[in-house]
User: Fold this.
Amino acid sequence: MNELQDLYREVILDHNRDPRNFGELADANRVVEGVNPLCGDKMTLYVKLHGDTVEDVSFKGTGCAISVASSSMMTERVKGSSIGATLALFEQVHDMLTGSGGEPPADLDKLAALAGVREFPSRVKCASLAWHALKAALTGPNGKVSTE
Ligand code: ZN
Assistant:
């Protein structure tokens, strides 16, 4: 288990150091700002929807390592997915972050690295911020989300 935790820590540190899909997306058609006042995490999510597909997605912002890594891993994972699959993934991640502590589903793959925050309730919002912004982007017009 310690080896797995070390691996997860490495994944998070790597994505924090070198966030994927970082920066504004000029042709985004959904833009959602997310804030987590508890920790001070702020991010803006840019989504380009094309039909039923998340054609492109990026983010920018500042925050703790967990929030940046979660945003980075999320954008990497959902780019090219359908809206339906992305919303289903949101539910899986949300359950993982807030759930009873069972093993994360295998198809979450690297996102399982975020499961460790369950041990730290104040960090759950850091990890879930980007995902709430994503859900808002897929289900409504431009807007803002806050974890509080
Ligand atoms: Zn945070």
